[in-house]
Amino acid sequence: MAPALDIPALEVAHLTVSYGSTPALWDVDATFPSGAMSAIVGPNGSGKSTLIAAALGLVPSDSGRSTIFGRPAKEAMRRVAYVPQRESVDWDFPITVREVVEMGRYAEAGWLRRISRSDRAIVDGAIERVGMAPYSRRQIGQLSGGQRQRVFIARALAQEADLLVFDEPFAGVDARTEAALLSLLAQLRDREGRSVVMVHHDLQTVRSMVDWVLLLNVRAIACGPVASTMTPDNLRRVYGAADIGAPAAEGAAWVP
Amino acid sequence: MGPLIDLLPLSYTESVVVVGAAVLGVAAGVLGALAVLPRRSLVGDALAHSALPGVAIAFLVTGARDPASLLVGAAIAGLIGAFMMVGIERTSRIRPDAAIGVVLSSFFSLGIVLLTYIGTTGNAQQAGLETYLFGQAAGLLERDVNVMAVIAALSIACVVLALRVIKTTLFDRSFAASVGVPVRVVELATTALLVAAIVIGLRAVGAILMVAMLIVPTVTARQLTHRLGPLLALAGVIGASVGATGALLSSRAEIPTGPVIVLVGTAVAVAAVLLAPGRGVVWRWAHRRRERRSALSSGVLIDLETALHAGPPPTVDELVLASARPRGDVRRGLRALDRAGLIERDDDRLRLSESGAAAAHAALDERRLWSAWLEHGWRLDLGDAREPDPRDLRRTLGDELTDRLLGFDAEAAPS
Prior knowledge:
The complex is a heterodimer of chains A (256) and B (415).
Chain A: E1 10-19, E2 22-32, E3 37-41, H1 48-55, E4 63-68, E5 71-72, H2 73-76, E6 80-83, H3 97-109, H4 117-129, H5 145-158, E7 163-166, H6 175-192, E8 195-199, H7 203-209, E9 212-217, E10 219-225, H8 226-229, H9 232-239
Parallel strand pairs in A: 3-8, 3-9, 6-7, 7-8
Antiparallel strand pairs in A: 1-2, 1-4, 4-5, 9-10
Helix pairs in contact in A: 3-4, 3-5, 4-5
Chain B: H1 2-7, H2 12-36, H3 41-62, H4 67-91, H5 96-120, H6 131-134, H7 142-161, H8 163-171, H9 173-178, H10 183-205, H11 210-224, H12 228-253, H13 257-275, H14 281-310, H15 316-323, H16 327-339, E1 343-346, E2 349-352, H17 354-376, H18 393-397, H19 399-412
Antiparallel strand pairs in B: 1-2
Helix pairs in contact in B: 2-7, 2-10, 2-11, 2-12, 3-4, 3-5, 3-10, 3-11, 4-5, 4-10, 7-10, 10-11, 11-12, 11-13, 12-13, 14-16, 14-17, 17-19
């Protein structure tokens, strides 16, 4: 498909973030088209998670700006569902699958009022869609890694957001779950025109499933459609001499 | 609190003490969860210790041992301690545990120095200030209990009203921020509520041991429920009963209240940690033991079936050799099979009974099904997040999928 570039789902310009004196992101420009599935790819410590958090205004940035569907990020957060890394939460927390997914409705339904019937239906639908209906009363600590990720994705679905942002959604997730969730995300894009941006580490998946990619290593190395962006040359610039998963047959053998 | 005090079948003084301790228990139980669940229990400890110099300074300023002003002093000092901890964490590279340690010990030292100084001034009013160290519920007046009850009711009302915000922030801070929750404000507010709980309990439990009243109810309640709402309610009930029991015991035995309450609470928590169904140590141990035994007996059953298939009924020694298991294991497995009526003994030779043969075949089928799942399971499109139980695949997968799985297996097997 040809992603529409006119109003990007997410755009950052001159984004610089530093922890202490070392920059985690340095003057990053990137655009993620709406209605497309995009990935942010780069080595460990390249600032992938930081880019997401800073773009959504969750960590302070030194400079730069970020727009979501053409509006300043702060005003457009209602249209965004953010799924943090799974390790960032305490899985022994006393909460059930259903309650976690319900969190996706709080911002819309109000933090005080009763959850309405239609909100309840949205929550049920989201749980059903990720296949977790048989588990909705379980405490989340009793789930496997793949099931936990399904719960997180169900919460994002319950938010009914136009832009879904995932931080490493498939780290430590079994292959069956990853395939099921990726096809669910593709469905969201194709049938409902939603935009997806995810941090991903598996170059193979990115090549086969994703439309658009940002290659990041503190600086933005390249950003564009997968086919024209994930060139051996660009990958080498991102990953340096390390193995880049690009077969040598592509003429990418690196000669010191 | 008057009517409640009149209702108890105790003397007036004892009733006041018991109701007061119950109020502090409810508050500490509910509000303590806000420190324990995000793994910041020791923040509660530091806050309690830093309240002490506040009590001393309030006494020096007012010159009177008026509980209300002393508690205001305690609250202010506790909040200053809280801000210092947050400030040290944010601005320097000192880690939270170190920041907690520094604030706790320095404030507490200041408190001791001030209390000692007050002791030397010969002010007749100062007698009894040391009860803020270890707590003395016996001296509570109905007036004090009323103040405690009002603060407790307000604080708990805040928690109930903001339950969704608190739940979301405690569970997933970055998600909460992404949906517009001012997480820093929420964290400061929960810290302030914690200070309120400490102020309520300071007089009766004392600065040193207050932390136990914050932790014990949540730890106990967590063993019994896995939902936040019920956990908070349960923690309140547990806190109240522990507080009331401890206060009654201490005032009858004339021991400082803090240690007695803490010992009662520890006993309750230990019992819950050991015995709670599902999470308790004893329960989990028994569960593990059952699992090990059933794995062993089904293993020995299959070994015996295999041996019978290969030759004449084996003796126990022959079975030990053939199965390559420790002798003790084989004997234990055989005893279990004997009890279940699955084997028959023919002098010293072993055979399977009719039900034993059926059980052996069922166990073999189960194993085959499990390896078929591991090998071909990815080809089944389950359509949901089910993750089959290896011991009972047919039930968790359903008959249709199980048959398809066996079909894949038969295809792949060399004919």
